Amino acid sequence: MAVDLLENRANVIHEVHLQELQKYCDELAEGKFTSLEHTEAIVHNRVIDELGRRDCGIAEIEEEVHKLRLAIQQYFEKFHP
Q1: Distance CA 52, CA 48 (A)
Q2: Distance (Å, rounded) from C-alpha 14 to C-alpha 16?
Q3: What is the mean pLDDT of residues 13-25?
Q4: Does 16 score more than 80 pLDDT?
Q5: Number of structural domains, the chain?
Q6: SS (H, E, C) the chain
Q7: Distance CA 73, CA 53 (A)
Q8: Domain residue limits at 68
Q9: Does residue 50 lie within any of the structural domains?
Q10: What is the DSSP letter of 67?
Q11: Is 42 helix (H, G, I), strand (E, B) or coil?
Q12: Which tens digit of pLDDT belongs to each residue from 32-74?
């Protein structure tokens, strides 16, 4: 379960980064930006937004990790006398 969660997030992060960088490159080629001053922030914010839309943002992952912790805790409680 944890491995699946991490693998999915890694795949989504990779895909989203490639998409957003390509989008940014296309926009640069079209002359949409006159300054490269905030390049990193623009791409970063777009990636964060897209990860959230795909349920792979920080809040969504924290929620899934919390569920995993509860499942582990419940499992160990079965062996507590």
Answers
A1: 6
A2: 6
A3: 94
A4: yes
A5: 1
A6: CHHHHHHHHHHHHHHHHHHHHHHHHHHHHCCCCCCCCCHHHHHHHHHHHHHHHCCCCHHHHHHHHHHHHHHHHHHHHCCCC
A7: 30
A8: 10-77
A9: yes
A10: H
A11: helix
A12: 887 778 888 989 999 999 999 999 999 998 999 999 999 999 9
Residue 2 forms part of a structural domain: no
For residue 37, the model assigns a pLDDT of 81
Percent pLDDT > 70 in the chain is 100
Tokens of 20: 């957003």
Is residue 59 domain-resident?
Answer: yes
Measured CA to CA, the distance from residue 55 to residue 41 in angstroms comes to: 21
Cβ–Cβ < 8 Å for 12, 4: no
* Residue 3 counted as domain residue: no
- Look up tokens 């997030």; give the residue: 9
Q: Which two tokens stand for residue 63?
A: 């929620």
> Which residue is associated with the tokens 């507590």?
80
